[in-house]
Amino acid sequence: MAKLNWIKIYDNQTHGPEPQQRGSVRVININDKRFCLARTDQGYYAMDNRCPHAGAWLGEGWCEGQQVVCPVHRYKYNVENGRGAPGQGDFVETYPIKETEEGVFIGLKADPWWKIW
Ligand code: FES
């Protein structure tokens, strides 16, 4: 399995223990790539920000339970596995999240050396 770089999204010291409301989504920008960060009652989840339907920003949508709803045509994506709701036939990539005493982190694959050089 590819090595993950854990990048801090929220720092408990700086942002406090409740940096994002439950049931909300937002756009985060890491290394010039945007992600949709959702916080549900179950925890934090990260997925691609770009809606596969027509490119709207999922991070500007909202949460319904364990789904993020796209603000444009209201397609829905499961925060745990990225699957579109039945009938959509699409999905978004999801990314691992880790919560520690220090804060909330997103796990991104380290760039392979041949992409760096
Ligand atoms: S752009 Fe997201 S549902 Fe159409």
Average pLDDT figure: 94
Largest sheet properties: 4 strands, antiparallel
Low-confidence stretches: none
The H-and-E topology, N to C, reads as EHEEEEEEEEEH
CATH homologous superfamily caption: Rieske [2Fe-2S] iron-sulphur domain
Briefly note the structural class of the backbone. Answer: mainly beta
Features:
mainly beta, 2 helices, Rieske Iron-sulfur Protein, three-stranded antiparallel β-sheet, 117 residues, single chain, binds FE2/S2 (inorganic) cluster, four-stranded antiparallel β-sheet, globular
What does this structure look like?
With 117 residues, this protein is mainly beta. It has one domain: Rieske Iron-sulfur Protein, CATH 2.102.10.10. The chain is 7% helix and 43% strand. The chain is built from two helices and ten strands, in the order E-H-E-E-E-E-E-E-E-E-E-H. Strands 2-3-4-8 form a four-stranded antiparallel sheet, with no helix packed on it. A three-stranded antiparallel sheet has the order 1-10-9. The two termini are 21 Å apart. The mean pLDDT is 94. The site of FE2/S2 (inorganic) cluster has 9 residues, from loops.
